[in-house]
Amino acid sequence: MTAIYQRIVLASRPRGKVSIENFRSETAVQTPVAALRADEVLVRNLYLSLDPYMRGRMSAAKSYAAPQPLDQTMIGTTAGVVIASGYAGLKPGDHVTGRLGWAEMGVASGADLLKVDADALPLSTYLGAVGMPGVAAWYGVNRILNARPGQTLVVSAAAGAVGSVVGQLARLKGCRVVGIAGGARKCEYVTDQLGFDACVDYKQARSAEALLSSVRAAAPDGIDLLFENVGSDVLDASLACLNPYAKVALCGMVAGYNGAAQPLHNAGKLLTMRASLQGFIITEHMEIWPQALAELAHLAQNGQLACHETIAQGLSAAPQAFIDMLDGRNLGKQLVQLHKNL
Amino acid sequence: MTAIYQRIVLASRPRGKVSIENFRSETAVQTPVAALRADEVLVRNLYLSLDPYMRGRMSAAKSYAAPQPLDQTMIGTTAGVVIASGYAGLKPGDHVTGRLGWAEMGVASGADLLKVDADALPLSTYLGAVGMPGVAAWYGVNRILNARPGQTLVVSAAAGAVGSVVGQLARLKGCRVVGIAGGARKCEYVTDQLGFDACVDYKQARSAEALLSSVRAAAPDGIDLLFENVGSDVLDASLACLNPYAKVALCGMVAGYNGAAQPLHNAGKLLTMRASLQGFIITEHMEIWPQALAELAHLAQNGQLACHETIAQGLSAAPQAFIDMLDGRNLGKQLVQLHKNL
């Protein structure tokens, strides 16, 4: 069997904001199934996860990972169904997550795929609350911040895939949880549907001082724990409110991903408040994934962990959906549902 | 016996740079020795330590400690000799360090004084390398940075009381040590007399880019450990050179102590390099002082730990010496030798 499918490659590196022209759609031909090597698995991708870290990979600058190569399929996590397998642990019809990129299908080593239970939870959940974003939230809340009852935790990008899980996990631990998000709709979502205690709409603030006042009002006892996804003015406002011995988990600084200057003015608070800060990349802590995924799945199945999804339709919608996500237009986890044109 | 002595009080809070007018000298009358309560000790102060943290206390802003009250004797650590004692553990002639402030004499509870051996080391050393600055260096190097052989450690304000000890301790642990200091004289001092491997003169750099290039050249393998005393552009240059999993001990940000804006542009490196950062105030870690002081005294007696001293003469010289220190005019530990007019 030979199949034709679509994939999206990185055509050029963005200078500043990402644009549609940085991507190129290509038609590819899948190697016949008969040519699969032992241990290889052919997967039909049903969902593609769009995540802020991809922006960093699009640049050539040195970072924690090698840049996305030009003219190669864009990297990305996917959830799909096994079509053919030379790997003992997977059979056709099994559902898996993997890193097959922006493509309608692909071949991966079976060992690089994670079998998931699509009966227990919707398949897409394994790309969000019970996937990489959820694990990042779990690691920050449990291993860096060590959240305890009565502490005030602030999380930025609160309505996003990571932030929404951070707040829910912290609430379950008895924290007072304050989100920071862009827009009234997102703020209503995290307070009304996710149970956050308060949410600051940073788009309402017309100045850094106004933003700081809003954060102060929402966290009147100061900030004990900060889970940072944004950086820039948003981080500055939270830094200004840190309590003594505050802990900061630095998971993302999406405000700077397009290359915009994002000077910090309140870093001195890390000294005067004797704070600790830890930057982390969740794929470097694979040892905690099994425990984290098991706990997150349990919570999701019990209805204690929700994550809204914003789903674009079709691979060709991926570039614009990615650009929109970097602009903060998504609510919850940004996904692309791929054509099922095998 | 009644004695007349001089003290210096905080007359007004500085707005921006500290000026002589923020201080006022007063004549005070010492209570007769006969009036000493049990446990109280009358001390003739021989040396006053001038330290950057005092600038923070001069402001009314909330920080880790209460502000220095107006019209009260300026806080400060002192080394002196016991004149009279109602405390069992101290007798006249004993040498002690304490927090008697900017004054030629004072009374303290005996439990708040530390008896030191002025035969083993010069008395002034107990205010520097074998005092609070030395303990701050020891804590950062041993408990936050956990310096190991072969690592590159960068320390700013390298010729200062803390920085000079940081570099020497790290050298003894087998680190490659790079200092950052202001001026050729300071750089020569730390490389030629303290044995640092290299030193960057930040005053030679005409731009942030030039400073970054200098730090890169001095730390060609990147920075594993950073002991930060300065903040601002100096911190930015070091942040840009951080290696993966770098550790940062944040001890001071003296560049901002006069209220000048000190935006940080490279905080994103804390994320991309998965760095950890810990702000600390050494007086909050009293449990490590005995061990730290013992080790530092041992090294100093063996000639393995040096610290230059800049000594102003007479209490009346203290305000200008303090201002000069904030401007970086001192080399090593800034002290004031007090009148001996008892």
Please give a structural write-up:
By secondary structure, chain A is an alpha/beta fold. Chain A has 2 domains: 3-128 and 308-337, Medium-chain alcohol dehydrogenases, catalytic domain (Quinone Oxidoreductase, Chain A, domain 1), CATH 3.90.180; 132-283, NAD(P)-binding Rossmann-like Domain (Rossmann fold), CATH 3.40.50.720. Helix content of chain A is 26%, strand content 26%. Chain A is built from 9 helices and 15 strands. Chain A has helices at 53-58, 132-144, 161-172, 184-193, 208-218, 232-240, 268-272, 289-301, 318-326; strands at residues 3-10, 23-30, 40-49, 78-85, 95-98, 105-109, 114-116, 152-156, 176-181, 198-201, 223-228, 242-250, 276-279, 309-313, 333-337. In chain A, the strands form 3 sheets. In chain A, strands 3, 4, 5, 6, 7, 14 and 15 form a 7-stranded mixed beta sheet that branches. A 6-stranded parallel beta sheet of chain A has the order 10-9-8-11-12-13, with helices on both faces. The first copy, chain A, has a two-stranded antiparallel sheet with strand order 1-2. In chain A, helix 9 links the parallel strand 14 (309-313) and strand 15 (333-337). The radius of gyration of chain A is 20 Å and the shape is globular. Chains A and B meet through helix 7 and strand 13 of A and helix 7 and strand 13 of B.
Key terms for this structure?
homodimer, 342 residues, alpha/beta, Quinone Oxidoreductase, Chain A, domain 1, Rossmann fold, 2 domains, seven-stranded mixed beta sheet, six-stranded parallel beta sheet, 9 helices, 15 strands
